[in-house]
Design goal:
By secondary structure, this protein is of the alpha/beta class. It is about 20% helix and about 45% strand.
């Protein structure tokens, strides 16, 4: 009976040591700053068109699990054939009791009306980003 308890303690210590070493490796990496999105960054999106309605969906990876993501399709004021997918984030880390410090994918989906040949653009927190568009049926 004592050997079962000793084996359980050894296995538990090994698992905890493994996770501790993994955390130390992750803490040595630089923290990703969401606000530093640049024009070279792009977001992959799926696009479907039917009966004058465009559906855009995708996901964006953010540094932790306590963000709120708001996605909206807006027609450009100067050219109605341009649709801008606006992605806005809010860091709610201080509002949460517990927050996982792991990169988390946040899905989004927006609808926009318009002709089939509209020009798609995107912005992330007010900065222009590229779009990797995959058309689906």
């Amino acid at each position: 009976m004592k050997w079962v308890i000793a084996l359980t303690i050894v296995i538990t210590a090994g698992i905890m040591g493994y996770f501790y070493v993994g955390l130390m490796k992750d803490s040595a990496k630089p923290i990703v700053a969401v606000s530093n999105a640049t024009s070279t960054r792009s977001v992959p999106m799926y696009h479907a068109f039917k009966d004058g309605e465009h559906r855009f969906s995708g996901q964006i990876k953010l540094p932790h699990s306590c963000f709120a993501l708001d996605a909206e399709a807006v027609h450009d004021t100067k050219n109605s054939k341009i649709v801008i997918i606006e992605l806005k984030t809010k860091d709610k880390m201080l509002d949460q009791a517990m927050c996982a410090q792991i990169p988390t994918n946040y899905p989004f989906q927006v609808l926009a009306e318009g002709p089939e040949d509209i020009d798609i653009r995107a912005s992330f927190n007010g900065e222009d980003i590229g779009v990797q568009l995959t058309n689906t049926e």
